[in-house]
Amino acid sequence: MATFKVTSPIFTAEQFDVGLRNKPMGQVNLVMLGLKHIRNGGSLTLASGLLNEDPIREGVSAAMVNGGVEVSRKRLVLRP
Question: In this structure, what is the dihedral angle of CA atoms 7, 48, 54, 71, given to the nearest 10 degrees?
């Protein structure tokens, strides 16, 4: 889960890391598991959230991880 806090010197790299390890890597792990079970023509859904499109001051970490999930989703769709 991403940390919600106004970005300041007390917002640490470790707090950003919590968001990076949880949301995007959680979805990557689910896709890796899902690929073993998906049928031909099936699909997997990734959820990014709204904060990368409609940011709030306290949502810097959430916007960053949501943006990463969104970009990855768009790139995966382009796979042949």
Answer: 90
Contact assessment for residue 28 and residue 48, using Cβ atoms and an 8 Å cutoff: no
**Tens digits of per-residue pLDDT, 9-50?**
567 888 888 888 888 888 888 888 998 998 988 888 888 778
To the nearest 10 degrees (0 to 180), the angle between helices 60-77 and 13-35 is: 30
Distance CA 23, CA 61 (A): 11
pTM above 0.70, yes or no: no
* 8 A C-beta contact, residue 76 and residue 19: no
Paired tokens of 7: 């970005």
